[in-house]
Each structure stands twice: as C-alpha cells, then as structure tokens.
From TrEMBL, chain A:
Cofactor(s) needed for function: [3Fe-4S] cluster; [2Fe-2S] cluster; [4Fe-4S] cluster
Organism of this sequence: Aciditerrimonas ferrireducens
Domain Succinate dehydogenase/fumarate reductase N-terminal positions: 6-104
UniProt keyword Ribosomal protein, yes or no: no
Protein name: Succinate dehydrogenase/fumarate reductase iron-sulfur subunit
Protein family (similarity comment): Belongs to the succinate dehydrogenase/fumarate reductase iron-sulfur protein family.
InterPro entries: 2Fe-2S_ferredoxin-like_sf, 2Fe2S_fd_BS, 4Fe4S_Fe-S-bd, Beta-grasp_dom_sf, Helical_ferredxn, SDH/FRD_Iron-Sulfur, Succ_DH/fum_Rdtase_Fe-S, Succ_DH/fum_Rdtase_N
Automatic annotation (TrEMBL), chain B:
Transmembrane in keyword set: yes
TM spans (from-to): 31-54, 93-111, 158-178, 184-205, 246-269
Name of this protein: Succinate dehydrogenase
Keywords: Membrane, Transmembrane, Transmembrane helix
Origin: domain of life: Bacteria
C-alpha cells in the first residue's frame, strides 16, 4: 500500500490554514485512526475531539472532503486517495483549535426546551404506556448528539443571524419526541413557531442525509412538527373546530400561574459557554 | 397547555471565528449533478405544460375514433368551450373562455408546488437554498417559510384535499377509457392502460403525502386510544417513505398520458385495441 495525504485545517480564532501530512496507508483504517497516527508522529499538538471510536459518543464530528461526517465511522478505503483528503472542523460553530469547535450553541437551545410535563398519574400512583404509544419516539432516542445535522443545516450554517431563533434539527427531533409523548401535557407548538424557527426550515433534508444514526429527521420529526404547528396556527378549519367543540386551551398566563416554569435558565447559564449542563438535550 | 410564555429566551452568543477556509464548499464530488438534473427536468416539464395548456386542442379522443380518452392536463373539462364529449354533464361553466387547462391544472399545480418533496427539489435546484448539503446557499438573508408568500406552504393539506377530488375525476376518466363508443362494448387499449396507470400513480402520490400521513394519524399522541387512525397511519407510512419516487413517477405519467392522447387526437397514430 502507498501513502495517503491528509490536508488538515490547523488554526484557532486568530486564523488558520490547511497543512498537509503524508503518512503510510494502512488497510482497514478509519479517518480517526490516521489522525491519531498524525498526532503520534508529525503533529503531536493537533487538536481533535474523540471518545468511543465506535460511532456512539458523537465527539469526532468533522467535515471530510467537505461532507459533515464522523471521523471514526468514515473508512479510508471509501475515500479517493489520488488527491489529499481534506479534513476541516465543523463550519457552523466557532473554532477552538484545529478540528475542535465550540458547540455551546446547542446547549443553549437544549436548555430552552420545555421538558416532559406528565399528566396526573393513575389512581395507583403509576403511569402506564402501551408499546404502540412509545415506539414512534424511540427512533429519536438513537441521537448521539454529534451535531452534524446542526452543522449541515444551512439556516444557521450560512446565516449566523438565525442562531438566536432556530433550535435546529437535533432539537426538532427532541421536540417531536416530547410533543408526541403519550403522557406529556405541554404544548410547544407556539414556541416552535415563534421562537424556535420551525418555519425557517425549508425541508431540504441535509440533516437526514448526514445523520450517522440514520434517523429520518425530516420525515419523522420536522414535517410532523410543521403539520402540528399548522393545526394550531394556520389551519382555519382546525381553528373553527376548536371553537365549535370548545377545545380552547388555557392561556399560557393561566397555566404559568399554577404551574412551575418549565425551565428558567440562570444567569450562570449565559456565562458558561463551554460548560456542559447536566441535562443537555438527553433525558 | 402552552409553554410559549413559560420559557425565557436565552441569548445566543453570535459571531466567533469559524474554522476552515472562506470557500463556498470543500466538496469535490459532483454535488451539482443532482440539482442540475432536477432543474432540467422540472424546467422541461413546466415548458411542456405551458405549451400544452395553450394549445387548447388535441386533448380529447372521442367517438369519431371509437375511444373516450382525455388528457389529464385538461380534466376536469367543465367549460363550455371544451370539445363535445370531453366536458361533464352536471356542471358546465359557459363564462370561462380561456383554455380549460388553466382550471384543470390549478389544483394539481397547487398540490405539487406545496408538496414537501417538491419543495426540497425546487429549493435546492432553483432557489439554491442550499444547492447541496455542505454547499453555501449564497443568499444574503434567509427567512425560510416564515413570510408571504412561502408561508402559504402551510396550506398544503387543503391542496391535498382538492387533489383527492381531482384524483376521483381522473379515475373516472380512466374507467371511461375502457369504453369503445361506436365500436361496441368495452375493450382495453393502450390509451386506457396509460390513463389507468396515470390514475394509480396519482393516488399513490396523493396517499403518500406527508399531510395525508399527519391527518390519518400523525397528529395522535396515544395510538392505543385511536386504533383506526393508528392503522391508517401504519398503512400510509410505508407509502410516505416512497413519496419522492411517486412524485416523479406520477409527473412522468401525466406527461406521457398527455403526449399519447395528443398524438392520437392529432391523428399521428391510432390507439391500438389490445383485446
């Protein structure tokens, strides 16, 4: 076997450039293996985030030949080696160093996500759910929070100004999981419409294309959420039906008066940009 | 209960230096091929349809050729200007003087243009937002589907409901195509088969629609309490997974059916009776 050249982005917030590293090709390797050999050889100071090397921790996200992928799940023999293999950090998030980015944006969005608010328990004090009621949401729990879907989403990748009001695909699947939860009583549709940017998504399905877990983010989460938002905000017949059947919801103020706030971020949340919260996104 | 006022917005720190070079993309594969192909096919379809709509002729093969074939681009044909035999009997709009295809195409156009699959297709290929994954969209501002006119995409379910009515009409057209008026009785011709496949394709496309999936049962949180809606949802879900294929296949069939009816009506070929 010959040599392989990796063209890796080296730099930090002060700037950077691509640097070529040529190492011997080894059969059966993934991109992360080659990065580790470069760290062990010519570039011991190369920064790269990784953990499990099994596609389950979601740490080693990067852009390989321009495509957002996990380095540990990208086999070298699937990449063309006639030209250098280009390795860059995720484009959507600010760089820390080399291949490591600051993904705190995702934790800010996770903290604003109203958690499960279950209905009253049954008389014996327990909750019962049928398998048929919970299996739809199980697909979404495969998410490993690699944030490749957030990275590839052009709503924030190409438009930084959208970040304050766009939760992104990773959190849309969480919203869908909770919205379709058989016990949940929270209604997040107006939150999604007004502040979490469900209308900004134009369903071009890049999030689904890059998901290493194969979650059908667009078909099973984003579009169903959009349709639920239509039910609540845009469908005149649904509105009329609610009026006639008197299925009016309590106002948010009434609810807030006798219920604890779903989530109230503390001032510390705003300062600790790189701290991972205890309940960040996963429940 | 609503949560919109329960959740306090958390400021997002904007800016920060991004890694990687300032290039549109680092992709080296042929990412442009798929949007270019979609662009070409949709442009051809729109150009052909525009031409066919304003022909206002050769859209019906009638009793003089012992057939009852109508182009899907002109059905339902309920205008007074429709050729004899093509229009319905219950409702005739005599005041409509322009080509009847405008009316016939209004609902399919609304359905396809707001379809979740076609939105992906034309946002990528025409709007370039984005042209491909990991390729910058190049627009200075982006508001998605939050403002007029794109906020109207939210009414897709109404276009879907009307499209079902159109499907019923085109299905009746397909059934009527097995009549051989003046030739005696019932038979199967190439034209009747094409209109039948066209109707089946349109049903598959409509029933695989995301709005259909939502209305069938996607809006339900507790499937165990709604077994019929759950069953419907489970029937529609596998179709929904092939929505893209049905979208293209039905589009192809509409064009094929129109071309076939057109060349038969123009006398270029005779519609062969198979049995």
């Amino acid at each position: 076997m010959g040599d392989v050249t990796m063209r890796i982005w080296r730099g930090d917030q002060n700037g950077g450039q691509f640097v070529d590293y040529t190492v011997p090709e080894v059969e059966g390797e993934v991109v992360l293996d080659v990065v580790h050999r470069i760290q062990a050889g010519p570039a011991p100071d190369l920064a790269c985030r990784w953990n499990c090397k099994a596609g389950k921790c979601g740490s080693c996200s990067a852009e390989i030949n321009g495509k957002p992928r996990l380095m540990c799940m990208t086999r070298m023999d699937q990449l063309p080696t006639e030209e250098p293999i280009v390795l860059a950090p995720m484009r959507t998030f600010p760089i820390i160093r080399d291949l490591v980015t600051d993904v705190s944006f995702n934790y800010v969005m996770a903290r604003q996500l109203p958690p499960l608010k279950p209905r009253d328990p049954e008389p014996d004090g327990t909750y019962r759910m049928q398998q048929v009621d919970v299996e739809r949401g199980q697909e979404f729990r495969k998410c490993i929070e690699c944030f490749l879907c957030q990275d590839v989403c052009h709503v924030i990748r190409d438009h930084e100004e959208n970040k304050p009001h766009y939760a992104g695909p990773r959190f849309f699947i969480r919203y869908m999981e909770l919205e379709s939860h058989p016990l949940d009583t929270n209604d997040r549709r107006e939150l999604l419409r007004q502040r979490m940017g469900i209308g900004l998504c134009n369903i071009t399905k890049c999030c689904t294309e890059v998901c290493p877990e194969g979650i059908k983010i667009t078909d099973n989460a984003i579009i169903p959420l959009k349709e639920r938002v239509v039910d609540g905000a845009y469908d005149p017949i649904a509105w009329l039906g609610r009026k006639i059947l008197r299925r009016t919801k309590r106002s948010a103020r009434e609810v807030a008066a006798d219920a604890p706030a779903a989530y109230a971020p503390t001032s510390e949340d705003l300062g600790e940009r790189r701290a991972v919260p205890e309940t960040a996104g996963r429940a | 209960m609503s949560t919109i006022e329960d959740v306090k917005p958390v400021p997002v720190t904007l800016g920060g230096v991004r890694g990687g070079p300032e290039r549109r993309t680092l992709r080296r594969d042929r990412w442009w091929a798929s949007p270019a192909f979609t662009y070409a096919v949709l442009t051809l379809f729109v150009a052909y349809t525009a031409w066919a709509v304003f022909q206002n002729a050769d859209y019906y093969v009638g009793v003089n050729m012992h057939r009852d074939l109508i182009s899907p681009l002109y059905s339902p044909c309920i205008m007074g200007s429709c050729v004899p035999g093509a229009h319905g009997t219950f409702l005739v709009l005599h005041w409509w003087t322009i080509t009847p295809a405008i009316f016939a195409l209004s609902v399919p156009a609304a359905f396809r243009s707001t379809c979740y699959y076609y939105r992906k297709a034309y946002y990528r290929s025409f709007w370039q937002a984005p042209p491909a994954c990991g390729v910058a969209d190049g627009h200075a501002r982006y508001t998605g589907e939050t403002r007029f006119p794109l906020i109207l995409q939210n009414l897709h379910r109404y276009a879907w409901g009307l499209a079902l009515v159109w499907n019923v009409i085109l299905t009746i057209d397909a059934v009527m195509a097995f009549r051989m008026p003046g030739d005696g009785g019932i038979g199967v011709s190439v034209g009747s088969l094409i209109l039948t496949v066209n109707a089946i394709a349109l049903w598959l496309y409509s029933l695989s629609c995301h709005a259909c999936r939502h209305l069938c049962g996607g809006h339900v949180d507790q499937f165990s309490k709604a077994p019929i809606r759950h069953r419907l949802w489970k029937l529609v879900t596998p179709l929904n997974g092939r929505h893209m294929q049905f979208a293209w296949f039905s589009l192809f069939m509409v064009v094929l059916a129109d071309v076939y009816v057109r060349i038969v009506a123009a006398g270029w070929i005779h519609d062969p009776k198979l049995f």
